[in-house]
Amino acid sequence: MRMMKGYWGLRTLAIAALGLLTFASNASAQETHDVSINYSGSVLIWPKVIWDGTHDTIIQVANTGNPLVQAHCFYINAAPRNPSLPPSVTNPPQWVETDFDIVLTRQQPTHWVASSGRRTQSDGFGVDGSGFDPGLIPPVPFGFQGELKCYQTDDSGSPLPGNRLKGEATLRTDTGDVSTYNAIALSGNAGLSGGQIGTVLDLNLTDGNPGGEYSACPDTLIFNHFAYGALDPMLNPSLVNTATLGGAGACSGNNCTITTTLTMVPCSQDLENGIPGSVTVGFLIYDEFETHLSASTTVTCWFNLPLNQIAPAGPNNPFTPGALGGSFVRHTRIRPVPGNGGVLGIAEETRTTSAGNTAVAAYNLQIQGNRFDGATQGENDAPAPGVTDQIAIPIE
Fold it and tell me: How far apart are the C-alpha atoms of 343 and 180, rounded to whole Å?
């Protein structure tokens, strides 16, 4: 260990079908230059990894091809420097990197738990850690909150755009809640070698620029969600006839709520010099009648907030039920301001009963357009100027 300096989460918001649908795939070849959760890629990003005593994370990664695959990985700890205080300008993220290598044989899947890592030793059949070990994987420190990033390499450790990595993460709590999302894959240009790419990965591969290196980051992230703190229409007696559910309503009163937390990371990062990316993004939040309000925030290193904390508190907070005419559903579009690079992220929805029991579901966000081409379909405003996001990797 070395210490160093897509797509939808589709969800139906109709009262009769309020489920969560996430895309998953075992496809072994990238069929698009877009950022993807359906296809394997050459760079994998898990935006949310947690280990704090009440939450832990199971990482899964697989080689979708027949040749042996090698990858270099980075945990990026974005926990605040003073863990006893909330993140702020005076309590910024630690931005501590821990790197390691993994090796996967033909079509090999593997997994590990963030809090314990994975050792290189023979494990008994049927126990956690069985199978071929991918290499020594260090545990994250207690209090870790941040992301994991891996890029495929050749035998020398240089970047290799082989497009054979696919991953997932399962966030679990000590009370038994689990939620899973797909790692975000960036496709690599298979016509380039590591020597041609060097130590700066340019995220400029698009259908309009097929000579680029890796998939350009999205221009816009899109997701549907409930207003923060909205009453759960499946459980609250005033919103649904529980007799039709066999009397299955779980609330004694109108107090079962739905909340959503948004996690985002900048696409551009300097892993060589330990400089976190920073992106200012704008939000357009619509109700079902297409009335909308706006908000903005800055994503530096790692962003993880309940939706209601993104905008100032009050009746006009667009993420809360009181705004937009009291509607309890939202359609939100996230777009970096012109000249900024892109962001990637996931969302987690939590449903709480009147007894305090919770159920959590993570999901990936839909993407539209890309930052390099500077084009977003279906937008009325002018497209943002072209931006090339970059991931600077260490010089070995």
Answer: 20
Closest by alpha carbon to 95, among 4, 199, 201, 2?
A: 4
CA 190 to chain CA mean position, Å = 25
CA 86 to chain CA mean position, Å: 21
Going by C-beta distance under 8 Å and a sequence separation of 6 or more, which residues neighbour residue 85? 91
Burial label for 377, CB within 10 Å (0-12, 13-18, 19+), is: exposed
Closest by CA position to 365, among listed 268, 283, 263, 257: 263
* Tokens 């508190």, located at residue: 313
The H or E element containing residue 331 is strand 329-336
Alpha helical stretches, state H, 88-160? none
Q: What is the separation of C-alpha 222 from the centre of its chain, rounded to a whole number of angstroms?
A: 13
Burial 10-19, CB ≥16 within 10 A → b, else e: ebeeeeeebe
Per-residue pLDDT of the chain (396 residues; tens, 9 = 90+): 333 333 223 232 332 222 322 333 334 444 568 899 999 999 999 999 999 999 999 999 999 999 999 999 999 999 988 887 877 778 888 889 999 999 999 999 999 999 999 987 666 666 777 778 899 999 999 999 999 999 999 999 999 999 999 999 999 999 889 999 999 999 999 999 878 899 999 999 998 899 999 999 999 999 999 999 998 887 776 665 544 444 445 576 667 899 999 999 999 999 999 889 999 999 999 999 999 999 999 999 999 999 999 999 999 999 999 999 888 899 999 999 988 999 999 999 999 887 888 899 999 999 999 999 875 444 444 445 578 999 999 876
Measure the N-to-C terminal CA separation of the chain; round to a whole number of Å: 14
Question: Cα Rg for the chain, rounded, in angstroms?
Answer: 21
Separation between Cα atoms, residue 115 and residue 118, nearest integer Å: 10
Record the tokens describing residue 51, joined without a space. Answer: 């280990």
Domains present along the chain, CATH in parentheses? 2-121+132-217 (no CATH), 221-371 (2.60.290.11)
Other CB atoms within 10 Å distance of the CB of residue 195? 10
- Neighbour tally for 246: CB within 10 Å: 7
CA distances from 155 to 86, 98, 102, 159, 272 (A): 42, 21, 12, 10, 20
